[in-house]
Amino acid sequence: MSSMRDLYHFTKIRAARNVKRGKVNIIGVVLEHGFPRKSKGTDWYYFVRIIDETYHDIGLPVHIFFETMDRSPRVLSPGDIIQFQSVTVKVFGDEMSAVYNKQYSSFSLYDGRDGSVPYQTSQRFRERDLDKRFVTDLRRWFRDFPIDEGPSNFSFARQLTEGEHFNLFCKVLYVYEGAGSQWTAFVWDGSDAPPAIIHKKLSEEMHQPLALHLESFSLARDIVCSFPTLGTVLRVISQDIEPDFLPLLRAGNWVKLTNLMCELHDGLWRVVLTQYSRIHYASNGDQFKPQPQRLYDERLLRNPRNLRRMPQWSLPWPSRITEVDIDDDCEFRTLMDVVTSTEVMVGYKCVVRVVSVLPCRAMDYHYPNGVLRIRLTLEDPTTRIHAFLYAEDGLKFFNGPSSDEVLSTKRNALVGASANIDGEEEEDTPRNPPWVQVCLRAQYQIEGDLESREYIVFGTKLRD
Questions:
Q1: Which helix (H) or strand (E) holds 22?
Q2: pLDDT for residue 149 is more than 70
Q3: Torsion of CA 255, 256, 261, 262, to 10 degrees
């Protein structure tokens, strides 16, 4: 009879921390959670940190051990409610924690916003009539309480450094399953990731071109067009954790991701979730505006207006090695503005880096009939695309007919390459292309029954 009464009794978190012996039942809001991973033994391990009205500054860590990965709790979002039956409280590591034992503990998970039915329960969990009241009371408290949202040491995309661990406060835009069950989350914080040094040789562009994106194939256009056109969209992948937990990130939510690893692939940034990464609560209500969103909104209000969409890394002004026909007062547009535009044959003025050129040798810029055709790989913080120089636009770009030596010199300046005494690219030297202005337009290209977009550079000239 005593054990039955115990099942109906919840211990508040502050009081539970002082329980030295025996088991307790606790219920709380999930402030942060990790990802399931193998423990040092044969078990799997999962981490959550919970709060209630009695203990909400740092919360109570709960360490959960279970036999197989499919028995792990799957918290859909920080802010959801979890209750535990029969957990012990002890010092774990260097802090007082609750420990979930696979032999006798149980749990249930509830949506943090509404609903009386748990969306996940463990096999041993026994639901009780009073559970609904406890869940309702906890939701009401959490909705109205100005919660401390935890660590403030969060970086912006503009502060990324290759090989370093960092924390990121970002908005989840989309979660995508690629080849081999490789999940990728697309996230954004409104800032511009830094430009990367390009290590690939120009001579490799024909057989090993720089990637336009990190996915194995292009996303559908309707997905791409749903992304913001200003600020970098980062790819987040999993490493050393089960990849099917990444889809639990909810599109549209702001999340705080901690203990991330930053990588560069072909000059494109990628964020890696490791076994030590965690997801921390971030307010999503209308009364709260996350700091990254506020800074982004301020960016759109800056003056002069024509500079608002220029890459932050090109300020105060791009290099002067190019000049364009479009008026200086015309507002700059991002490459994503061009890619997502529904209009074609409309000219846009952009600030980009030319990260690669095909053909790579100046002597190959002209086809046998004398018509110039060059493919440039352009990037800005929003995306990377191929754009073409044709015929008269190409002649204008190089400021009229030129010798191979002059063309090589101009090409090297454009792609940020060092040159040897003959004007050719130094093969082993990393490249740092400058920010330059170009005029771009999109046009449709029809091949058989397929219709695609092609991007054209026009009205742009390299200065002598």
A1: none
A2: no
A3: 70
